[in-house]
Amino acid sequence: MHALEAGAAGEVWAALGRRLPSPRAILIASAHWETDRPALTGAAEPETIHDFYGFPEPLYRLRYPAPGSPDLARRAQSLLDNAGLESEIDPARGLDHGAWAPLLYAFPRAGVPVVQISVQTRLGPRHHIEVGRALRPLSEESVLIVGSGHMTHNLRDRRPDGTPPLAYAREFQAWVNERIRRRDLEELADYRSRSPHGARAHPTEEHFLPLFFALGAASEDAKAERVFDAIETGSLAMDAYVFT
């Protein structure tokens, strides 16, 4: 529903689009494309995928007609192969809502080419850090690298709009923020055993893994800036970070 009613999160995404240098392309990891090994969209004109059911009809009329970039997909695949990470290019896959919903606000003209990369949930955080590291050179080639997921994602804990944040979501959010600021990737990768409420915050990991992809892609001396930290419906933390 953020695609239709993004609220404060949408304002932050729009502000980031105005603030960031205009990229030549975007590489975005979404929680909503899971594969056994890294996959990249290779379509020149990726379709807008509406990968959800039972929502208001206007949501299904939304389109994000950004071009793709087969050249970027091939460049990314080459970097992954050089790092020993076997990957593939999917010539038909479009952009799912984990990709196009935030981009709809950050780059509303849909003029920047977009390539989406999948997550491999069974391989865990460290794998995604390595995927990000392998693709780090792209950030020096005017490619904006994005991880799109959730800081917490336990849909069973959702409450009515306006409900105060649940304590465990705030505690987990604060724990992650502290480790991001000191770039403690090892402790972050072990969040399920080391953090307060890690397993409750993420009953399954796919919505947290894009963060590790972004952390890996950021340089070792990158400054982490949290630009949003609201919690919606009691339990869904919407944190947004910029690594510069």
**What would you report as the Rg, rounded to the nearest angstrom?**
17 Å
Q: Helical residue percent?
A: 25-40%
Strand content: 15-25%
Instruction: Give the N-to-C terminal Cα separation.
Output: 29 Å
CATH-assigned fold name: Protocatechuate 4,5-dioxygenase, Chain B
Low-confidence stretches: none
CATH architecture: 3-Layer(aba) Sandwich
Mean pLDDT reading: 97
Number of strands: 9
- What structural class results from the helix and strand content? alpha/beta
What is the overall silhouette?
globular
> How many H/I helices?
10
Overview of the molecule:
It is globular, with a radius of gyration of 17 Å. It has a single domain (7-243), classed as Protocatechuate 4,5-dioxygenase, Chain B, CATH 3.40.830.10. It is built from ten helices and nine strands. The strands form four sheets. Strands 4-1-5 form a three-stranded parallel beta sheet, sandwiched between helices. A two-stranded parallel ribbon has the order 2-3. Strands 6-9 form a two-stranded antiparallel ribbon. It is α/β, with parallel strands linked by helices and 244 residues long. The two termini are 29 Å apart.
Keywords summarizing the entry:
244 residues; alpha/beta; Protocatechuate 4,5-dioxygenase, Chain B; three-stranded parallel beta sheet; two-stranded parallel ribbon; 10 helices; 37% helix; 17% strand
